[in-house]
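Researcher: Re-running this chain for the archive, since the previous output was lost when a drive failed. Same request as before.
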Amino acid sequence: MTLAPLTRPARLRPGARIAVVSPSGPVPADRLDAGLDVLRSWGLEPVEAPHVRDVHPELDYLAGTDEARARDLQEAWCDPSVDAVICARGGYGAHRMVDLVDWAAMRAAGPKVFVGYSDITVLHEAFALRMGLATLHGPMVGTETFLKDPDTQESLRATLFEPETVRSLGLPSARVLVPGSARGITYGGCVSLLAADLGTPHARRPARGGLLVIEDTTEDPYSIDRILTQLLRAGALDGTAGVACGSWADCGPYEKVRAVLADRLGPLGVPVVEELGFGHGPTALTIPLGVPAVLDAPADGGPATLTIEGPALV
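Model: Regenerated structure tokens:
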């Protein structure tokens, strides 16, 4: 599979209606309430999906039943009055509900903005592969990072309303792991979720010409090694043009994580940038998926950047 640019949805305007869904784990009520207030402060109209505050009666790590979570996503997407869908949080559970969604009905409803990360990686892949739609790997309204970090909030707000102003992505912490420059189509997310998708009926085949963006949390260095090795052995990284790495929160001493990334990704022979500032870290920048971008990792020690070639939203 050679990646091609995906359909970009329309940017948001003041007064846009935003459906908030919980496809994975349950969200604390106080965090959800605070996140909804942030959306309102931006001039948006958040709308809670019927089961967004649910907790599964037996499996309390799920935000309600698989069927209810899938129905919330589908009904929100197919509601013509809804302009965007944003997830309340990640956790676990998207793999359980992704195949219960009527993707043909979703496709017929047309493109909209979709935002989330972490476990939501499963849905980013589904939107890309089953709908041909570009999405936003960005913060979720019921998470501490979104509520506490101004840079995280502004990255999402600007991407939603003024996407042409956030073409160059990354924090000053970004560093070159493997030098070089590459152009490709962004894809990826939480790397353990990408590995968990392997072998499923709708899994991505080798993403030739893609710029892989990856991050994760609470995975020990040996576990990150296993995850990357699985992707490599499966051929999932064959033809990848470059790799942009975000945060590795609670994954052990970063130098050990860095050694794993260098060992596993270095032999690909493509540019690799680290610590760009997206994912589970203290700042979660919004990264568009499914769009053309350039990854620059200068050998002379210059700033490492991921530059989107056009606005993420039209």
